[in-house]
Specification:
The protein has 209 residues and is α/β, with parallel strands linked by helices. It has a five-stranded parallel β-sheet with strand order 2-1-3-4-5, with helices on both faces. A three-stranded antiparallel β-sheet has the order 6-7-8, covered by helices on one side. A hairpin with a 2-residue loop joins strand 7 and strand 8. The protein is elongated.
Length: 209
């Protein structure tokens, strides 16, 4: 089930939209202001951001600009009652993937959400690598490959996060010895074993390029 972070300060509109999206098999979490959205985006991984622009504390454009600056490439759709050329330009400059004006046809929003999530999930077949969510088996070009448990868990986390970085504190949980040196050693081994280009992201973790 795809997971969406909705940032919306109107409780009636938010609850109505959440109910509608849940009926169409989306898992939705609700942030009532920009600071709550920032906290939730740090604690969780989402398939899509659905952000109102005019929300308290930190507006939607600044929230998304901060996320993009932190190497978060999660697809983002802005919803707003005001869509003029200047506002749209600011939104796209901040890293938005789409814009929709309130009030909107819910079915149109579903189409836009579905297109963005489908494109994102297609990217998770990364350089021929994919994994089975249930069995946690890893495949390359359709062929099951064998890996040690630590390397497999790290690669699954990197594939799940792609194209965003996997957070260091999450990767550390897979290690018997939890320190930066041990994590770097495992990354070097994984790069040699898979041929993937994996890069450290300062203050965040590691990502597949």
């Amino acid at each position: 089930m795809a997971k969406i972070l909705l940032m919306e300060d109107d409780p009636n509109f938010a609850k109505s939209l959440i109910n509608y999206l849940q009926k169409h098999d989306y898992d939705v979490e609700w942030a009532r202001d920009g600071e709550e959205a920032i906290d939730l985006s740090y604690e969780n991984r989402y398939d899509l951001y659905l952000f109102d622009v005019n929300v308290p504390l930190v507006n939607g454009i600044e929230v998304l600009r901060g996320l993009r600056g932190a190497e978060d490439g999660t697809p983002a759709i802005f919803i707003s009652a005001q869509i003029d050329v200047k506002s749209m330009a600011q939104g796209f400059d901040a890293g938005a993937d789409d814009y929709i004006k309130k009030p909107f046809d819910p079915e149109e929003l579903l189409v836009r959400i579905g297109a963005k999530i489908a494109a994102q999930q297609e990217k998770r077949n990364v350089y021929g690598y994919r994994f089975d969510v249930g069995t946690r088996e890893i495949y390359r070009d359709g062929m099951l490959i064998g890996m040690g448990e630590v390397q497999r868990n790290i690669l699954i986390e990197l594939l799940s996060a792609y194209p965003n970085p996997a957070r260091k504190e999450v990767l550390m949980e897979f290690l018997e010895t939890q320190n930066d040196g041990a994590l770097r050693v495992n990354m070097v081994k994984l790069k040699k074993e898979t041929g993937l280009e994996i890069q450290a992201v300062r203050g965040v973790g590691y990502k597949i390029l």
